[in-house]
């Protein structure tokens, strides 16, 4: 959109008056944020309505991305950017004596996701809108996002994340579009006189699902898609009140029960009640979404048989898997279709992405739980399962044990990944290696049955948030050097390659990195009270804390350097600042112990005069999207050190690369493709190969105690965990020691230790030669374009959803 500074100023002043009855000069930063936010939403509104009409007019196929998480990050900055008015607004505000950055900081970062999966959904939303793909999100409007993390005495403490305390300027509540979702009751098939069976569902509880819509603004293309998040509300006091009647107390507790459905992201699932609530959440947003999509489709006046040509529903991991039986239910019970036709439409509509091969993360629900909560849905799943099994009756080349293992219902559980594979036309992994592992290991039998359903879609990130917004100085340098076509076509970043030896560009890259490091150093000083030298190497690992991601390997290497520094007069190293950011799941005890270990290590190293400031260890609390936007542009080393085969893709690896960090990596997930793109001289690879890891797992692991006894470095490091050398980790040190030695080092931390040390040394040698290092940084930036989510969503659109892009 185009707007003059003068017009904007007028609009802003008017908005301030209408909202707060006061002048801009007299307003607080918070008031300025809300006035600006509501004004930007007004700017968005016109094209929001138009986009919907345009899609309708051209009869465009619509994609609905169903995800239990959307980790959007702050929206003021990205909306201004995508509307194309960020510079104008910034200049106008500056003239009014206002700093846009100060205002942007007021916005709460809505933490409606755990990590990579939720952030991927958000990147895809941005990229779909920016490429004119009619793609909308469907999820839950949690009242509380992922917990806020505080570090107290080195330990993680969790506090509620009340992100809605102040108004959310971006959402629009649409009570008139509310729908009802049914839980509990009894369901059965009633035989009719004509021999037909009619589905009956009685005694259910009805929950009102109220949608809140958030605009998803495309980059300078007038496209505004919609993220629809559902909130659970009590319908009317006489619907479904439990036995005991509608006394005030009963109504209140009933209201609380209903509202708890959209209360918190990922409730504790270590007990039965928690798990039941999770299943409720899944069906809640899925049913509301599918009902609405079907209703909108019917308004087009087309026959239901064409549903799959006009609608694609994408199932982001198995959490929305009940979309499959839910669409079947609506098509049969509400629309009167026969099973076969409903099934054809459902398969044509649904597609599924798998995000993990970790078997403990694969969802399965006890049949009894499903029977209690979703009786009609269970009947449909049982019928899908029965027909699946029956479809093999005549085939002689399929082993019955294969059918048993791939069935949806077995051992008393409903297996959600199996439901997704059987009920969808497409299943994809999120990086080449991950997809290959699905095909040859985890889902091998399904791959043999349905090879045509399997495909790879390597993850991507939006270069608008992760480069343009997070690193404006680098973005400006790119514009100046190679023109600004990369903004629309991120693969044009490769034009920068020509400048990898250019003195000017090299020194600019280095200057910008230093500026970003300095900014982060100031933040660290303010937050953690630690002084770090912006001229030291900034070595960063930020991601969820999980044993397979191996923050422990990083920490043990720091401990190794520390021991060397204080015991070996010969040892020398370049000064390095190790930065961590990681939340541990509240019930994940071991992960929390590693957080404590890192903090204790930092406390000691940072304050030991013998270290002479060669090492600083910083743990930044409450890692999330907003913090990532400051941390990632300041990184020089990107730690991507998961146990090979365990990280499905990773996406922070792509963000770091795009910002000129050098990746220190195992050949896991998308690191493999990063290596392919950037070339071996521009990345530092270490660790076991996929084959070695798989072989060890097949043979029950390796002998870590032997390694401990034979490698003096490992022995010194591990002993210092338990002999009091590192203070204040008596319990944690012992538990970590035991996990590595007594429990045989499940994630090969020690097995990869030697190789990791050597890689760290190579990295340091490379850093000593600034010309080489800057050249590597430039190679990384210029090779990162293929990891733009724009590329990824276009592959989904062409290969899975069969959607067109609308002309900009
Ligand atoms: O998904 C992550 C994978 O671990 C990454 O390798 C990958 O890059 C991203 C995106 O594909 N998985 C998750 O983030 N998973 C979850 O957050 C999650 C949430 C709820 C329940 C189970 C898993």
From TrEMBL:
GO terms for biological process: glycogen catabolic process. It is an enzyme of class 2 (transferase). One of its GO terms (cellular component) is cytoplasm. It catalyses: [(1->4)-alpha-D-glucosyl](n) + phosphate = [(1->4)-alpha-D-glucosyl](n-1) + alpha-D-glucose 1-phosphate. SUPFAM superfamilies: UDP-Glycosyltransferase/glycogen phosphorylase. GO terms for molecular function: glycogen phosphorylase activity; pyridoxal phosphate binding. It is found in: Cytoplasm. It comes from the Bacteria. The modification N6-(pyridoxal phosphate)lysine is found at residue 655. Keywords: Allosteric enzyme, Carbohydrate metabolism, Cytoplasm, Glycosyltransferase, Pyridoxal phosphate, Transferase. PROSITE patterns: PHOSPHORYLASE. Its cofactor is pyridoxal 5'-phosphate. InterPro entries: Glycg_phsphrylas (IPR011833), Glyco_trans_35 (IPR000811), Pyridoxal_P_attach_site (IPR035090). Its main location: cytoplasm. NCBIfam families: P_ylase. Phosphorylase is an important allosteric enzyme in carbohydrate metabolism. Enzymes from different sources differ in their regulatory mechanisms and in their natural substrates. However, all known phosphorylases share catalytic and structural properties. Belongs to the glycogen phosphorylase family. This is Alpha-1,4 glucan phosphorylase. The lineage of its organism: Bacteria, Bacillati, Bacillota, Clostridia, Eubacteriales.
